[in-house]
Amino acid sequence: MRLDLSPDDLLSTTRAVRKRLDFDRPVERQVLLECIELAVQAPSGSNSQRWHWVFVTDPDKKARLAALYNRVFATAYTPAARDQMDEAGKRVWSSAEYLAQHLHEAPVLLIPCQWTRPATEGSQAAYWGSILPAAWSFMLAARERGLGTSWTTMHLQHEEEAADILGIPYARCAQAGLFPVAYTKGTDFKPGPRRSLDEIVHWDQW
């Protein structure tokens, strides 16, 4: 299924989808490959293309990854922290909690990876700038095909354990996140609230 979104609509309505992921509908491998084929058109430093894409559909491995995720979630999203949030924060908390509870049910989990590990502080921008644009392109391609995604990073606090689960060579390859991938319940997503440009745009100086 293609939504035929305009470029502006695609960019402004690709959301982090959690509660509207359809966990019961399978995602076809060919659709995932179409998204990756577009994703790898993204730029990478020196055109190095050092990315790898690990799709996880095995129920046991999804459950083990979700357990790592929830181990971190339980310490980051405590009831005490929730009580200190405003209403907007509590809505985000509710959405994040739902995803944590159901992460293992996603038809597919995607972990983007990149050869070598990030080294010095000065090289961080170049390193992550060679994988994150491709990961975002995957999310855009998925949205156009009726799929929802959500960029999560909590499991990275236990990245080496995740690498063991999936056979990723941890010492030589870094993970950039964990994305649940599923068809969405409805496709009518809208632009999210954002700060005024007057607050964040600077001309010639801060």
The CATH class turns out to be Alpha Beta
Task: List segments where confidence is low: pLDDT < 50 over at least 5 consecutive residues.
Answer: none
Report the span from N to C terminus.
Answer: 45 Å
Structural class: alpha+beta
Mean pLDDT: 95
Number of domains: 1
The CATH topology corresponds to NADH Oxidase
Note the main sheet. Answer: 5 strands, antiparallel
Strand content: 5-15%
Radius of gyration: 18 Å
CATH architecture assignment name:
3-Layer(aba) Sandwich
The CATH superfamily label reads NADH Oxidase
Helix content: 40-55%
Order of helices and strands: HHEHHHEHHEHEEH
The total strand number stands at: 5
Query: Number of helical segments?
Result: 9
Shape: globular
Keywords summarizing the entry:
globular; 12% strand; 5-stranded antiparallel beta sheet; NADH Oxidase; 206 residues; alpha+beta
